[in-house]
Amino acid sequence: MEEIVGKLVGILWSPVMIYFCLGVGLLFSILTRFLQVRLIKDMVVQMFKGSSSKSGVSSFQSLALSLSGRVGTGNIAGTATAIAFGGPGAVFWMWAIAFIGASSAFIESTLAQIYKVKQDGEYRGGPAYYIEKGIGVKWYAVLFSLATLLAIGVLMPGIQSNSIAQGLDNAFGVNTSVTGIGLVILLAVIIFGGVKRIAGVASYVVPFMAVAYILLALVIVGMNIGEIPGVISLIFKSAFGADAAFGGIIGSAIAWGVKRGVYSNEAGQGTGPHHAAAAEVSHPAKQGLVQASSVYIDTLLVCSATAFMILFTGAYNVEKPDGTAIVTNLEGVEAGPAYTQAAIESVIPGFGAGFVAVALFFFAFTTIMAYYYMAETNVAYLLRGKNAKPAIFILKLVLLGVTFYGAVKEAALAWALGDIGLGLMVWLNLIAILILAKPALRTLKDYEAQKKQGLDPVFNSTKLGIKNAEYWEQEYKVDKEENAS
């Protein structure tokens, strides 16, 4: 089983995939004239504008829901794993994919808003919707939808629950089966409450834990402030093969940095658009900009916090692809949350293991919530015009089951299975957004033109010549009047 899984991961995450992710992000950065720099102010302003409605959530709630999917195990365990197998240089490549990936996040999230639909009283959207409506190839849309259900509904929740269980076991000695049962009960209470409850929980939990985590990282950096030049130098030298110890694994640094960066920030992966489509906005570019900012928050803040804590304290091991050790600072410690726990523990004895376990619990738990919402959206897509309630009920049971199973299975297999699901989604979605870049770029140009005129941008798909944007053609004005009354 493990050999088959390993081969599939090798195919999906070949060097071609790594360069494809970087290439698409760089292309969109150029085509949008590096909006991730030019429009940072708009990202922040739009984040706090607008409010929820009967059909959708606010821009901030959509961002929180998106961040609940982005800020998870990848930030703590994934960053540690990238350092373990790619060396300190992997951190630079995580930053690089985040910076250029922000443009990919904008494109896919803007497309989700352009081609969203109002279904059963709620906004629904995502890659399956914009593939069908924008490209006009339904079988491809169905393929993505099925791949997402496999990845998000079956393969990836286990990564999150596994990290929670291992963290609680390491910190408090909680049996993994007990953790699995507890997760299932809490998750059931939330997901049976619908998208509003999921978004509500995420909008409170995610900002609180992210701020607490970053503040702790700042404390540790402050206590080791003299090490800053050395650590920054180590990251950059290792990234380009200039460090004596890590120069021989530059390929691993790039591969692991990009792979864990994409897993963490999800730019171009096709997950973020599901949340973006749920937002109540007057122009698709508004939510596209908000979702682009989530990539920065995830990787440049939370992932960097983990990396700095680990590197400043030296709480890491690094090995070559053949398993030969390069650095062994933590004898017998498996790559993952234990690195971060050891880092905090070395500075604040008796606190590290517990804090990381709690942080992992909240980050990873909210990620599983986000996974459920994405899976539900794809069930709704596949069963449009039919009674989807029985299928959605079965989906809930399956997700609860795999969450429990993930809590008690081996970590290595959990990550590998997740890499298969993620790889499928990334390949399918990146090809789609490359084909559909023109409507998104046209929408960005329209947004900026209206802003220059001093207007609050309002989208008119017909005027822009964008076809099959049925919600904006037929229902937007009706919804606006209903929300105003």
TrEMBL record:
Residue intervals passing through the bilayer: 12-31, 92-115, 136-159, 171-192, 204-225, 231-256, 295-316, 347-371, 391-408, 414-437
Cleaved signal peptide residues: none
Record key words, sorted: Cell membrane, Membrane, Symport, Transmembrane, Transmembrane helix, Transport
Cell compartment(s), UniProt: Cell membrane
GO cellular component, one term: plasma membrane
Topology of the protein relative to the lipid bilayer: Multi-pass membrane protein
Gene Ontology molecular function: amino acid:sodium symporter activity
Record family assignment: Belongs to the alanine or glycine:cation symporter (AGCS) (TC 2.A.25) family.
NCBIfam families in alphabetical order: agcS
The name this protein goes by in its record: Alanine or glycine:cation symporter, AGCS family
Species per Swiss-Prot/TrEMBL record: [Bacillus] enclensis
